[in-house]
Each structure stands twice: as C-alpha cells, then as structure tokens.
Amino acid sequence: MSRLPDKILVLDFGSQYTQLIARRIREEQVYSEIQPFDYPLEAIKSFNPKGIILSGGPSSVYEEGAPVTSRELLELGIPILGICYGLQLIALQMGGQVAHSDRREYGPAVIEMVETDALFKGFEATSDEERRVWMSHGDRVEVMPKGFKILAKTANSPVCAIRHTDKPIWGLQFHPEVHHTVSGRMIIKNFVFSICGCHPSWTMQSFVNGSVEKIRETVGEDKVIGAVSGGVDSTVMAALVGKAIGERFYPIFVNNGVLRKNEAQEVVYLYRDILHLNLIYRNATERFLKALKGVKDPEEKRKIIGKTFIDVFVHEAKKIEDVTFLAQGTLYPDVIESVSFKGPSATIKSHHNVGGLPEYMPLKLIEPLRELFKDEVRGVGKVLGLPDSVIGRHPFPGPGLAIRMLDDVTAEKLETLREADAIVTEEIQKGGLYNEIWQVFPVLLPIRTVGVMGDERTYERVIVIRAVNSVDGMTADWVRLPYEMMARLSNRIINEVTGVNRVVYDISSKPPSTIEWE
User: Fold this and answer.
1) Of 150, 170, 195, which marks where a domain is finished?
2) Are 507 and 478 a contacting pair, CB within 8 Å?
3) β-pair type (249-255, 112-113)
4) What is the domain extent for residue 421?
5) Which residues participate in catalysis according to the annotation?
6) Quick check: 398 and 255 in contact, CB under 8 A?
7) pTM
C-alpha cells in the first residue's frame, strides 16, 4: 500500500506572499494547501497536516476585526510556524505584548543568531550576506510571551525569531518565502523536514498516477466533454483525462476567429495526430466577428466572446449523447482566490471559461489540475510526454487578439495583428529568447501616425511590442531585449505587415501596469 503524502497547511491572513509559501514547500516535493485563517479546527484535524504555517498579513493584531485563529490551534501539538503577522498573533495569544513600532521596517535586514535551533540549522556557517532577510512590518513584539525564547534579532528588531521551549511553536518576523531572504529556502526546508518530519513524496509522476486513478473512479463508464484551446492548461487537462478514459473523452475546440496565425490548424493537429483524442472542431469565426462588430470596450469584448463561446460549445456538446461530466483546466491560484482571507479580488478583467453552462446541461465538474500551480502543470505535461512547444507555450488570453487591439475588431485588423504576431514569435525564437521570456506579443493601437515609405507620405497604424518576465503573472517586469533584436522586429513588421509604419516598445512593469493592454 502506497504511503499517503505528507501535508503542510498554510493559513492565510491576507499576505501578498501567501501563495509563495505554498509554492516554496511544494518545490521541496511536499504537498501544501492554503486555507483561510478561520478554517475550522475540526477540518484542520481531518486534513491531518504534519505542520501549520500562519502567513503574514496587512492587519495589526489589535485592529477591530483583525483575523484571529482559535487559541486551541496552539495546543494541537502540531508544529506551527508564524510568519510576520503570524508571529505577532502567536505572541499575543500566548500572553505577550505587541506594539506599533516608531521604526517601521520594510526591506532588507541582517539577522544575528542568539541561540542555535533546528529551524536555523546550517546558519552557523553562513555569511552576513546569506543572513540577509526581507522585512515588511509596522508592529513588533514588545513583551515576550512566557515560555518562549529569542532565537534571532536584527538591528531594528530585538525579537526577530522565537520558539516555545516546550511546544513545537516557532515565529519569524521576516519573510523566508521571498527570494530577497537569501537563505529562506534553508529555513523552510528545516521546518518541513527537520521539524515536521515530512517526506518528499509530492512529485508530478505521483500526481499523474493518482489523478488517472481518481478520474477513472469518478467517471466510471460515463462520457466527459471539455473545452480546449491548445494552451498549456487545457492541453494538460485533456491529455490527463484522455489517458484516464480514452475515447469516452470529447474535447471541443471552438475557433473564435481571434486566434493567432495558423493556430487553429496547429491545435487540431496536436489533439488529433499527437494526443490521439476525439477532438470536435468548430470554426465559428463569422459568428464571433459578427457579435463583436463595432465593440471597442474591452470588458464588453470579453463578455461577448465568453457568451458566444458558451452558445457554440453547448451546441456542439448537445450532439454527444449521454454526457455526464465536464472537464475544466482550473488551476490552484483560481481556487485560492475564492477561499482566501481577502476573498475574490477586485475585477481587473473578467475571465473566459466554461463556467456559464445553462441549467439544462447539468453536468458534474472534473477539475484534475485544481491542486496545481502553473509550473506544476508544466511538470505534469512533461510526465505525460507533451511536446516542448506546448509545455513552454507563452500564455495567451481566452479572448485572444480581440483584446490586443485597442479598437473594434475587424477581419482586416486581425490580419494585421496576426502577421505582426507571427514575426515577433519567429524572431524571438530565432534569437533563442522564447524560453527565457514569460510572454511577448504585439498590440495594435487605435491611432495612425505620419510616416515616409519611399518617396511617399504614409498615414498608417502603430504596433506596440510587449515583452515581460514573471513567475506566476502576479507581478512582471519588462524584458530588456537587445537593441539588435528590437531593430529586426521593427524593420520586419514595418516592411512586411501592410498598413503599419511605426513600432514602439512597452517599458512598463506590473504593477502599476497589467501584462495585457486590455
């Protein structure tokens, strides 16, 4: 009988870094899961974690309505690590005092060890640079709770790391999960392995094996449909479901008319000839373009594309008899967003998925990737033997090129943008930069500028090139492309794409800008 994977529970108090905590633990091949700070005590016991981490958060522990866990959590005997706000909450609940500091601490600091401890195993041999940590707090512990001792301090924080002398409870004032904390990975590994006693059993191969078995058990002899786009998430989902139930899975690919050059043909080839799936393909270009005619507002474009997609998808799905399940490529960040302490974030832009199926199609949902982060999905793709061109594919929005033109959508503008996009992709690949960049694409602006081509005055369109690097899309920085590369991109687009006489480069980061323009 196979061993059940060890698990670490992360309780979310609203920190912007909560997802990073879970990711860092999973990087050590240990399963971690995020739940809101008020996750019931009985649910925690049922989850049976080997350790619990209390995240940071923007609140003060004394604020009205500040997030607070049950005091009983600290008496379960399960190893607990409080980070920033988590440390302050532990100190308060255990009888200490927390106060607002006159000297707020944001940014780097160097910790000085006061006592040796399993949490800091290996720090004895580190340099000052390796003991540099990242602080982000306004409150700090002023009076230590009884039964605790100080493990580390900084010039500004006399209480930087603590632990209980008898209970398995630790606290850190800094953030070990961010890369600015140089030896943060060492601290997390010490907590997960030395203190919690976890075994590294969370691998993508084990995930695939378990998922295939679970899908077969859930579906039985029934049929499953799913929407696919050729992107990483939907392709990995389709490959996984196909591996589990074979010909009883029917992926549906709708060509919405706002895809990139040759993309429809490539997706059909991928699913039918490489993955050998029962792909249902529907070219609905005319229908989508008709629905989008004259629409300039980006949110309206998204809603129209989403609704039209649902209509076409349902029409095709109804042709398949006795379907019971719908498979979706939902990822863990989407799940976290709905259960986190902060709740669903403010709508920056609406997302395009299959969540709006009508009530007369009461299908049961299968989301085989809902436990995974994006990098883990790519890992599953490798285990399943998907081509590198699919696994390393840059993100592409569901509404496609429609939201990469800041104007109404027409066949002519789509052709201009497709040709520019093909040149950008080709040159980035030829330059060996494609796998080093998170995302690169052109945007068509709704303006015309004066130019000169040959001896003639022109009044043509403008293309913006956007290239960014990111880990998960939450933050991003613009890529410093070589000037020679920029020159080739500009020359080729202006010379080869009809109706364009100017190319500019976007040098804004996220935040404050978004990755996409709409």
Assistant:
1) 195
2) yes
3) unpaired
4) 410-505
5) 84, 175, 177
6) no
7) 0.83
